[in-house]
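Subunit of ABC transporter for cytochrome c1: structure, please.
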Amino acid sequence: MNFFVWLLKPSNVIKYTDNFIKYLVILLNILIFSNLIYLYFLGFVDYKQGFYAQIMFVHVPAAWMAIFVYILLGITSFLFLVYKHPLLIYINDIFAFLSLLFVTLTLITGSLWGKPTWGTWWVWDARLTSVFVIFLLLLSMLILRFLIENFYDSAKLVSFLGLIGIINIPIVKFSVEWWNTLHQPSSITLFKSQIDYSLLISIYGMFLFFFIFSLLIFFIYLKVVILELKYQSS
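Here you go.
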């Protein structure tokens, strides 16, 4: 508990994020250029889907990040309900925003990929519907934060919604195995993959780019919030 309080102490957050942000910006630029160069020389064109298959280099990592950040949201929601630390409210806000960003990107790229391969922009199958439920939950959380005037009441409600949404994560993950869906089963698992390693490099590379991007946005947002609160209290 003492370490947790020390970690969220505003002065410590400011102290340890200044240099960290600079390194993240450098790493982010390296990753985007290296990914673009690798994709250019890879020149991947699927024999069935053509150039459209390249959407997976954005769609798959975005889906991973959306779920990963939502799980973090669920954890911080639980911690806020237990410890009531005010900084956790802002952490929940940025996690909700980032998860919504990647869920939206997942849905858009999925539709762009689905039209030429499935012949339709959207189908209400288990995987797409469960992801859309997460989209609605996240959108509701951010709207409620603006609509409810009481700061702590809105934070409690959003935290409860965040915890409820965790139930949907296993459904998203295993929906293609539990039900007959138009969406294909997972091609990449923990112990094996049906995708060639040359394509996996780009998928993991984009996931790392999204991860570093999220870290950068997270720390910048946290720093701005702390400085703003410090200015308001002075």
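Notes: The chain has a mean pLDDT of 82.
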